[in-house]
Sequence to fold (354 residues):
Amino acid sequence: MRKSLMIVGVLAGTSLMAASLAPTKTAFAADQLTVTAFGGVTQNAQRKIYFEPFGKKTGIRIIDQEYNGEAAKIRAMVDTKSVSWDVVEADTTAAIQMCADGVVEKIDWEKLGIDRSKFTGTDGNDCGVPSLVYSTVLAYDKDSLRNGPKTIADLYDLQKFPGKRGLSKTPFVNLEWALIADGVAVKDVYKVLNTPEGADRAFRKLDTIKKDVVWWQTGAQPAQLLADGQVAMTQAWNARISTANKESGKHFEIVWDGEALGSNSWVIPKGGPRVDSAYKFIAFVTSPLAQAELASYLNVGPANKDSIQYVDKAVLSSLPTAPENMANALMVNLTFWADKGPELRERFTAWLAK
Fold:
């Protein structure tokens, strides 16, 4: 708790000092920045921890907007030379794809003034600066299932753990978990999945539980499925499970074995008029203290590895990037999904329809 208070104190002190130095004139176009992110509780936290302190420190007013991650919106702005979003938070897979398509700026890390090696989620990600690390995990309700699953293989054990399974309606992570449950070591998952035989193997394993799956499509659904007793266990995003425990008094348990780590990234749409200010913003919100504060607030992993030292230990144990939770973690290969994603999603859609 002392560290969390220290973070708040440092940020608050910085904000107060910045407020006394901030320009008093009305903000004009050059003094504002439009930042677009995913909305919800995450963006509410970003307003408090990122947007407002940045504005006070720099005199640049943040106008924030929300979207659902549609890369097509960014592409349309760039193609028509009408870029109105200066900085966008995107799923890192989308950031990699937009980079390949020339839709977003390539990041100049020297200009940013940050060591790229300090971040999780930069492999193959030349146009994004990772903003946070999230984890897809297995979860269950301890009140309903006292001796619950311990591994990803248990998700597929219908005899030991009878009942419905909640899975996200996407091949993303499901194919990886199917291979892990079938005995493939975490380190070999993408080597196997990158072959026709490996993909066949993953779909065959999914076949064994297909009739017992409840498919979900939004992040709020897994906690509700558990609360309503509709599933014995479910795939979920770790932060949603932690939030349900904290805010609703639930006793949901996270199985960290095989957690699948993904990330979001800040990107700069190509051709925007305020690139220099965008760099200042990204540098501010990816600093160790700022990311540690967001991690403590949302139970997401900070992408900046130097942030961990500032996170309160009571919160650290619930973060996907906590050392003990990383013991058998799978780092989602975003380059693989950017390359193979369209093909595998098409096959997955056809498989669901059978």
